[in-house]
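Hi V.,

Quick status before I head out on leave. The structure for the redesign project is tokenized and pasted below; the design run finished overnight.
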């Protein structure tokens, strides 16, 4: 795992998010161009639609998967839930209406 922003309270919540993403396919792919602005925009849009997503890192990507996970999470303000090989799972809580009146 990487250091960074934490939105989850602990192992049970992280496990539930991993379980929810288990059968999902990666919605964004990082290719040979690395973390270009278009990839970051795609991840932002995907996290705007859903709280948790998977990102695939192609073998032609010049960066290591751990580097991509850390940089991407920092750029979009998300938490890395899991990194398995070349697939990372990101989580960012939905921005809902505030509870204040």
């Amino acid at each position: 795992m990487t250091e960074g922003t934490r939105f989850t309270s602990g192992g049970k919540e992280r496990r539930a998010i991993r379980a929810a993403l288990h059968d999902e396919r990666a919605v964004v792919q990082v290719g040979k161009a690395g973390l270009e602005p278009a990839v970051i925009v795609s991840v932002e849009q995907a996290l705007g639609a859903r709280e948790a997503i998977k990102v695939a890192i192609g073998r032609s990507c010049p960066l290591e998967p751990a580097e991509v996970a850390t940089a991407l999470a920092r750029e979009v303000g998300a938490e890395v839930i899991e990194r398995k090989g070349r697939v990372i799972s990101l989580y960012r809580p939905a921005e809902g209406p505030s509870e204040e009146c």
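Above is the designed sequence. The mean pLDDT is 88.

G. will cover questions while I'm gone.

Best,
W.
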